[in-house]
């Protein structure tokens, strides 16, 4: 019989409801094996389908197993590496996350969205040093992009390094010739976050222009 994803998912759901997780794993692996035998070109797609199903059901161990099988066949696929990192984040596997994100950034040729994704994950895990390095790299590449400056400022706030918040905006303001409108916008944002003291120099400079 031809492999049928809907039937497989229903059967896996039935076993999951009964907490028979060994049978869930067996059913999903059988589906993947059948697809590989019947349509080898759809093997990776089948692995992704069952990995995503497992992730949606919060069966992270099984999802990780299937994402890792994809990477055995397509080791530098950025999408899969990011999905694996997200799964490892859900399991708080810090050492594995670091390796996976380094692979993801390399596979993505250190492009801005990949650096931003990795920084977001590091930040969620309170791996502030790693996130800081990536935000600084983004700012160096795109100094006039306010979102990166704001992200670094927010990171320092979460990290408890409030005194470093002004350094987040240094490159941005320089790239935009310390525009009074930008100074006011930064001051307003700082005040909204409860950093009135940090906002004063920006307000003063805007008033002097």
Overview of the molecule:
Helix 2 (21-38) packs antiparallel against helix 3 and helix 3 (43-56) runs antiparallel to helix 4 (60-73). The longest helix has 18 residues, at 21-38. The chain contains 13 helices and no strands. The chain is elongated. The model has no long low-confidence stretch (mean pLDDT 96). It is an all-alpha fold.
Largest sheet: none
Poorly predicted parts? none
The gyration radius over C-alpha positions equals 23 Å
Give the total of beta strands.
Answer: 0
Give the H and E element order.
Answer: HHHHHHHHHHHHH
Mean pLDDT across residues: 96
Distance between the termini: 76 Å
Contiguous helical run count: 13
Helix content: over 70%
Shape call: elongated
Please indicate the percent range of residues in DSSP E strands (runs of 2 or more): under 5%
The secondary structure category is mainly alpha
């Amino acid at each position: 019989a031809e492999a049928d994803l809907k039937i497989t998912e229903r059967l896996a759901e039935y076993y999951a409801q009964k907490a028979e997780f060994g049978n869930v794993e067996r059913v999903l692996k059988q589906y993947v094996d059948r697809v590989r035998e019947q349509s080898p070109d759809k093997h990776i797609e089948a692995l992704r389908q069952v990995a995503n199903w497992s992730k949606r059901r919060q069966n992270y161990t099984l999802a990780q197993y299937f994402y890792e099988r994809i990477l055995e066949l397509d080791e530098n696929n950025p999408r899969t590496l990011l999905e694996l990192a997200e799964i490892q984040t859900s399991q708080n596997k810090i050492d594995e996350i670091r390796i996976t994100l380094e692979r993801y950034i390399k596979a993505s040729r250190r492009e801005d969205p990949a650096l931003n994704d990795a920084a977001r994950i590091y930040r969620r895990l309170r791996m502030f040093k790693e996130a800081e390095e990536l935000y600084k790299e983004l700012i160096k590449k795109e100094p006039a992009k306010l979102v990166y400056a704001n992200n670094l400022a927010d990171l320092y706030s979460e990290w408890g390094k409030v005194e470093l918040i002004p350094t987040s905006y240094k490159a941005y303001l320089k790239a935009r010739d310390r525009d009074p409108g930008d100074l006011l916008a930064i001051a307003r944002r700082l005040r909204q976050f409860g950093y009135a003291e940090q906002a004063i120099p920006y307000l003063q400079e805007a008033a002097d222009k």
